[in-house]
Specification:
The complex is a heterodimer of chains A (175) and B (370). Chain A is of the alpha/beta class. Chain A has one domain: Pyruvate-ferredoxin oxidoreductase, PFOR, domain III (Pyruvate-ferredoxin Oxidoreductase, domain 3), CATH 3.40.920.10. Chain A contains five helices and eight strands. In chain A, the strands form two sheets. Chain A has a six-stranded mixed sheet with strand order 2-3-1-4-5-6, covered by helices on one side. Chain A has a two-stranded antiparallel sheet with strand order 7-8. In chain A, helix 1 packs across helix 4 and helix 3 packs parallel to helix 5. The longest helix of chain A is centred in the N-terminal third of the chain and has 14 residues. Chain B is of the alpha/beta class and 370 residues long. Chain B has eleven helices and 15 strands. In chain B, helix 7 crosses helix 8. The model of chain B has no long low-confidence stretch (mean pLDDT 97). Classes of the chains: A alpha/beta (175), B alpha/beta (370). The interface between A and B is medium-sized, with 19 and 23 residues.
Chain lengths: 175, 370
């Protein structure tokens, strides 16, 4: 089982990213569950979502305490939340950042999802849309395949710029 | 069709397939997505139901009662305080022998204000005469909702059915879902006492003690008959659609020394705990209770039992633990866990088994043991 924890702020699309990722994994022929953890839902508050991917049906409903992959859609959260908590020894981290962050070692990948969203003019209510570009980065990291990512995005969104943003993140992320 | 969906969307999809004539509902977290999705089906013309957006849950059930008394298939969905607000009408629906189907997204009761999973809301309707089933996967939410109509409408039952799914833990998670072409699985049904303007009768008149007592007995007689009807409907469902269900879902129970009994998502997660315990040489099994009313007969002879209650009857104990004890004569280790959405993992469940004290009660994370 591959377990992913997504950190974001309310309104940034972390919950939708989890659903898209589960759908893409499902289109890859895997079992997948997306479990958003709902707290006091407010825009801007730190939120966390969980995705599990496996070859067998998934029976776990509790939160992910030892993730294989941590995704941080807003690195300012790292001042208030220990995003690396419980990360497995060989676990990976994906940051939405134009630059590597000090203190994040070799398992850390970064890609400027915000820049990619802005370049595609993917903005809703003043916030750049991060949930579709992050799927492209996850395809690059072999969590899911790019064709399934594109399929999942087209199932949930009519706007083709979302697919373009995912492709751009796939190109930009260095693995 | 194979897709991926939330528990809420699965219930809505089953309702679309069941084609109720009337749906009356009032939104409440975490159930809102069910009635939103149904409203979209109706607006888009994909479901030819009369959708009544009422002003309260009390009115939602009242509207369902009126429609159902007219012989029309009806559905509503609610949760927590919404369910309690309609309590009077919940009794009425069963007493009037109306096969209404209701999804209840299990949620704790305030205060403190809490929208997370707990079974106290459904258990507070325990003695109303409703059948209650608890589901554990998105697929089961869909399947159980479809079967609920067939069970409720059976001439030997004619009682309402509540389909319970855990708030957020199931209502808001995405899992795979296979929807089916139901064909004639749910044919139009005939309510023998439906309002008929050609043959006017009095409904709900003053009823003397002797007749009232017989009406109550008749509810219980139908509850007892419901066991067989449920088994028949679940068998037919398995034959038609390939997924089988029973009063309990038993996992590795055959040779188990200790059996974990739980409901809803905790009951499914317990299977993972069982696998861990088996790896350690502990012969554990999991028995997930699906039907709460009518309560099934449980064969637990010679086993130790750990019951997880996501509920509590203050001044008495865990509702499920006491039901198991009264049904089987076995004194279980009673674990109270997961109230108000408290995080309970498969590791925690495995710990309940490892550290069990038969006959005792513990509050997870509060009492001394565990």
């Amino acid at each position: 089982m591959y377990e992913i924890r997504i950190h974001s702020r309310g309104g940034q699309g972390g919950v939708t990213a989890a659903k898209l990722l589960a759908l893409a994994a499902f289109r890859d022929g895997k079992y997948a569950t997306a479990c958003p953890f709902y707290g006091a839902e407010r825009r801007g508050a730190p939120v966390v979502s969980f995705v599990r991917i496996d070859d067998r049906p998934i029976k776990i409903y509790s939160q992910i305490h030892e993730p294989d992959l941590v995704i941080v859609l807003d690195t300012s959260i790292m001042d208030v939340v220990d995003v690396l908590q419980g990360l497995k020894g060989d676990g990976k981290v994906l940051l939405n950042s134009a630059h590597p962050l000090p203190g994040c070692n070799g398992t850390c990948r970064h890609v400027d999802l915000t820049g990619i969203a802005l370049a595609q003019n993917l903005v809703i209510a003043g916030s750049p849309i991060l949930n579709t570009p992050v799927l492209g980065a996850l395809a690059k990291m072999s969590v899911v395949t790019l064709p399934s990512v594109e399929k999942a995005i087209r199932e949930m969104f009519a706007d083709e710029r979302n697919v373009k943003a995912a492709e751009a993140a796939y190109e930009e992320l260095k693995v | 069709m194979l897709t991926i969906a939330t528990g809420n969307k699965a219930v809505a999809a089953a309702v679309k397939a069941a084609k109720p004539g009337v749906i009356a509902a009032y939104p409440i977290t975490p159930q809102t997505e069910i009635v939103e999705q149904i409203a979209e089906y109706v607006t888009a013309g994909d479901l030819a139901s009369q959708y009544i957006p009422v002003e309260s849950e009390h009115s939602a059930m009242a509207a369902c009662i009126g429609a159902s008394a007219g012989g029309v298939r009806t559905f509503t969905a609610t949760s927590s305080h919404g369910l309690l607000y309609m309590h009077e009408m919940v009794h009425w629906a069963a007493g009037a022998r109306l096969p209404i189907v209701m999804a209840n997204v299990n949620r704790a009761l305030g205060p403190g204000w809490n929208t997370w999973a707990e079974h106290s809301d459904a258990f507070s309707q325990r003695d109303t005469g409703w059948l209650q089933v608890f589901v554990s996967t998105v697929q089961e939410a869909y399947d159980a909702t479809l079967m609920a109509f067939k069970i409720a409408e059976h001439e030997n039952v004619l009682l309402p059915v509540m389909v319970n799914l855990d708030g957020f833990a199931l209502s808001h998670i995405m899992q795979s879902l296979e929807t089916v072409e139901i064909g004639d699985f749910l044919p139009a049904y005939h309510l023998p006492h439906a309002i008929d303007t050609e043959n006017p009768l009095v409904y709900g008149p003053m009823t003397g003690p002797a007749d009232y007592f017989r009406f109550r007995w008749d509810i219980e007689r139908s509850m007892r008959d419901a066991r067989g009807v449920i088994a028949d409907v679940e068998r037919e469902f398995a034959e038609r659609f390939g997924r089988s269900y029973g009063p309990t879902e038993d996992y590795r129970c055959e040779d188990a020394d200790v059996i974990v009994i739980a409901m809803g998502t905790l009951g499914k997660e317990a299977e993972v705990a069982v696998d861990r315990l088996r790896d350690e040489g502990i012969k554990a099994g999991s028995m997930r209770l699906r039907w709460f009313r009518p309560f099934p007969d449980l064969d637990l002879a010679g086993r130790e039992v750990v019951v997880i209650d996501r509920d509590y009857s203050f001044g008495f104990g865990g509702v499920l633990a006491h039901a198991v004890r009264s049904k089987t004569g076995i004194a279980p280790y009673s674990v109270i866990a997961g109230l108000g959405g408290q995080e309970v993992t498969y590791n925690d469940i495995a710990d309940f088994v490892r550290n069990r004290h038969p006959g005792e009660e513990t509050w997870f994370g509060v009492s001394d043991h565990v």
